[in-house]
Design goal:
It is a single chain. The chain is an all-alpha fold. The protein has one domain: Growth Hormone, Chain: A. About 80% of the residues lie in helices and about 0% in strands. It has helices at about 5-10, 15-35, 40-45, 55-80, 80-100, 105-135, 135-170, 170-190, 205-220, 220-250, 260-285, 285-310, 320-345, 350-375, 380-405. Helix 5 (about 80-100) packs antiparallel against helix 8. The radius of gyration is 20 Å and the shape is globular. About 55% of the residues are buried.
């Protein structure tokens, strides 16, 4: 597979094969989380989880591992290259997958999921660094949106696929699916995609240059403020992912229809990512992000009011929940692509390190908030909608600060 030409890069274009390749590199995270969601109750029952909310750790620990590992993968990819770093990540991911597949206790499952997250951080960081190697500015935001569109097709289908695989081979077969996915994606990169980091641009992997690179990223105030914005938005999204199975399958009593409802909401995400890829070249990342944030806050606040007024234990009718969450997810998808691009924009010469710091801070910063809100789930959806509204307001404040200190290009 050939890389995009200079003209294609300037115009924010890429071949379908290149976009699909990047989507596969990042989709391992979505697949690792979403395909197992329909099996959480079966895993909990077989392994003897103590509390109903303990199953949320099967989701959370992937994010913990991913957040912790990316700060290593970024500098590593700037030193030894994108491809070698991705291969290391896939190896760790495979080890975690095998451990989780063989789990006989909650501790083994949790350790396997943590290892999966530690491994998945590599391909995800490398994919972002590859985009930054080749693109910048609005074209970079467009490519990230196209990748996100393909990426979001995975959550649409993953729970359905996971449910089918579980029906055929039990929940352990889902981890066999993860193993196959890692081998296919890693093999494609190893054999069919060139290295994008010029050897002349590689940075020494020694304490001095690494710490200097970290200091430059952390000292770029606009980057960090946009990272904080992304972390708050992601924190609200983590709450949804951690509680989706309980809300849809158990709260709304959808049972086997849960993956289909989950997929409908993922479709809103994919449509928004595709729309952003078209609109960002015309209107720019900042204007679209501001509009999306205002919409997210307004719809979430309206959802809190409607949920409280509706009675029924803080659970709105299913049709209203789906409409409100679709509108919120439309905003979140726009923010994910643009906030990442805006954070990385000033740091093209440190693409790998910058991507690792941005993702590590955003993910690890989002987890305590997401964990606290998700653990408060008791059947009412008021905490979920309140989380989106309050965290959206925080993201808006940090976006304003980022624009205030930004150095114009």
């Amino acid at each position: 597979m050939t890389l995009p030409t200079r003209i294609e890069r300037a115009e924010g274009r890429a071949s379908p094969a290149f976009v699909i390749f990047l989507a596969l590199m990042t989709a391992v995270v979505a697949m690792t989380i979403d395909a197992v969601l329909p099996a959480l109750d079966a895993i909990s029952d077989e392994l003897g989880f103590e509390g109903a909310n303990d199953r949320q750790l099967i989701v959370m620990l992937v994010f913990v591992g991913m957040g912790l590992s990316q700060v290593v993968y970024g500098p590593l990819s700037d030193s030894i290259g994108r491809k070698r770093t991705a291969m290391l990540g896939w190896a760790v991911f495979i080890a975690g997958t095998v451990l989780a597949m063989a789990a006989t206790t909650p501790a083994m499952m949790f350790a396997g999921r943590l290892l999966q997250g530690l491994g998945a951080g590599g391909p995800r960081i490398v994919a972002m660094a590859v985009v930054r190697d080749l693109y910048e500015g609005r074209p970079m935001a467009r490519i990230l949106s196209l990748v996100m569109t393909s990426f979001m097709l995975v959550p649409m289908l993953a729970p359905i696929v996971g449910q089918g695989v579980e029906a055929i081979g039990g929940w352990r077969a889902i981890f066999g699916l993860y193993l196959a996915m890692a081998l296919v994606s890693g093999g494609w990169y190893l054999i069919g995609v060139p290295e994008t980091l010029d050897p002349a641009q590689r940075r020494p992997l020694s304490p001095g240059p690494v710490f200097a690179a970290f200091a430059e990223v952390l000292g770029t105030r606009s980057t960090m403020f946009y990272t904080f914005s992304a972390g708050l938005v992601f924190g609200a999204f983590v709450v949804y992912l951690a509680t989706a199975q309980q809300v849809l399958e158990e709260g709304y009593k959808l049972g086997p229809l849960f993956p289909w409802a989950f997929g409908v909401l993922a479709l809103a995400f994919a449509l928004a990512s595709f729309a952003n890829s078209r609109l960002v070249m015309r209107f720019g990342m900042r204007r679209l992000s501001l509009i999306a944030l205002v919409q997210m806050i307004a719809v979430s606040a309206l959802a809190v009011v409607l949920t409280r007024m509706g009675g029924n234990g803080g659970v709105p009718p299913l049709w209203l929940f789906m409409v409100l969450m679709s509108l919120i997810f439309f905003s979140v998808a726009v923010l994910f692509a643009n906030f990442n691009a805006l954070a990385l924009e000033p740091l093209g010469h440190l693409a790998g390190t910058a991507a690792s710091v941005v993702n590590t801070v955003a993910i690890l910063g989002s987890l305590p908030v997401g964990y606290l809100i998700s653990r408060s789930y008791d059947g009412s959806l008021v905490p979920l909608f309140t989380g989106f509204a309050v965290l959206g307001l925080g993201a808006l404040v940090f976006m304003a600060l980022a624009e205030r200190v930004r150095v114009p290009a």
